[in-house]
UniProtKB/TrEMBL annotation:
Species for this entry: Candidatus Gemmiger excrementigallinarum
GO BP, one annotated term: lipid catabolic process
Catalytic site: S43 (nucleophile), D173 (proton acceptor)
Protein name (record): Patatin-like phospholipase family protein
Lipid metabolism among keywords: yes
Record-level Gene Ontology MF annotations: hydrolase activity
Length: 395
């Protein structure tokens, strides 16, 4: 909820092709009735921010859903390794790729006067190449008619892209010195900050604003920085939406977007999972540490941390981890039961069959199975989840 009298700022980090994620964030914010008075950005965040500020969300989404690398950078169409190698050697010698295709896109999409008139106050950062100093640029400090040049300067990810010269001074990507310009938003009058981190190249400075701050970021890899691909963009837009809804408490989960649902299924799953883990730990003392290692390696929290308002939500952790292991699609919302069904439908050979001695007490080599579990702990958790779900019939 917004604090009374708060001035909200949306801060859009840089990250090249991963910027499609920010479109999904914007969709969620509109649905949540969370409207910023200020938008600041670095690199691709400046381009998205401009379009958001002037209400061109449909155009922004259409752009990302169709954008390919040739629409952004002047690169050859060939896939011949030798030709590509020679091309990139020439790029290095010449000081970076030509971004004229991107400049043409900006001309067609960004209306400078509309940005200046927008009720959303816009600002960007770029980096002075000779001093590597971060330059903060609220829209009123950008000379009339120069917004496109400043956008291209903020997006010039050197050495892959050429520096941009403005009035005799060369500038490069704003993200090199400040990829999440929270301080600029604070300087422009914000009292509440929402950052969107897309894991871009550069420095994310420590937040010293002292302002209430939330950060949207994804559990998932959003893809390479310069790999502009419509299919990946569509997936990232969906992830941006789901992650924002989770941050605002409308969805649960860590990696997957989990819809509110009856806790009965999770209670049954949690009880069975914990019982099976305990039984397995009796057969192979210390196997519970393997389960913990799996969660830590994959970036999941402890599954049964106290949460009085939702005591069974922690049961999602091993289920989500197992779904990630078996590549259950991450860009869709699920109820816990639907996620479990998607998991059970994602394999031909039951993962639990790899651990007959550990999970079923059958004949086999506990030593070998424990060694295998320790080597690939995510595989062990996946097997344990499968074993637990098999006892819940039907899902």
């Amino acid at each position: 909820m917004q604090t009374a009298g708060a001035v909200r700022a949306l801060v859009l980090a840089g990250g090249g092709a991963k910027g499609s994620y920010q479109v999904g964030v914007w969709h969620a914010l509109q649905e949540l009735d969370w409207h910023p008075s200020i938008i600041t950005g670095a690199s691709v965040g400046t381009l998205n921010g401009c379009m958001f500020a002037i209400g061109k969300i449909k155009e922004a989404e259409a752009l990302w859903r169709s954008l390919e690398i040739h629409d952004v950078l002047d690169v050859p169409a060939t896939r011949n390794p030798e030709e590509l190698n020679n091309f990139f050697l020439d790029v290095i010698r010449s000081g970076g790729l030509n971004v004229e295709p991107l400049a043409e896109r900006i001309d067609s999409l960004v209306d400078e006067e509309a940005v200046r008139r927008s009720p959303i106050h816009f600002g960007l950062v770029m980096t002075e190449m000779s001093t590597m100093r971060s330059i903060q640029c609220p829209i009123e400090d950008i000379p009339q008619g120069k917004l496109k040049e400043y956008l291209l300067a903020s997006s010039a990810c050197f050495p892959a892209l050429r520096p941009r010269e403005i009035d005799g001074v060369k500038y490069i990507d704003g993200g090199w010195r400040d990829n999440m310009p929270l301080q600029l938003a604070a300087n422009m009058g914000a009292t509440e900050l929402l950052g969107v981190d897309i894991d871009g190249i550069g420095i994310v400075r420590q937040n010293n604003t002292g302002l209430p701050t939330r950060i949207v970021r994804s559990h998932w890899n959003l893809g390479p920085t310069l790999d502009f691909d419509p299919a990946r963009a569509a997936r990232n837009i969906a992830l941006g939406y789901l992650d924002t809804m989770r941050l605002f408490g409308r969805l649960g989960g860590t990696a997957y977007g989990i819809l509110p649902d009856d806790d009965e299924f999770l209670e049954r799953f949690a009880d069975i999972y914990q019982r099976l883990l305990s039984e397995t730990n009796t057969r192979a003392p210390g196997i519970d540490r393997v389960e913990k290692a799996a969660r830590q390696r994959a970036g999941y929290p402890a599954p049964y941390a106290p949460n009085p308002s939702a005591p069974t939500r922690g049961a999602l952790v091993p289920l989500e981890l197992a779904c990630e292991r078996l590549h259950v699609p991450e860009d869709l919302p699920y109820t816990p039961k639907l996620l479990a069904a998607a998991f059970m439908g994602s394999f031909d050979k039951d993962p639990a069959s790899r651990f007959p001695a550990l999970l079923y007490g059958k004949e086999g080599s506990l030593v070998a199975e424990r060694a295998m579990a320790a080597a690939v702990p995510e595989e062990f958790v996946t097997a344990l989840v499968s074993r637990a779900l098999a006892e819940i019939s039907p899902l």
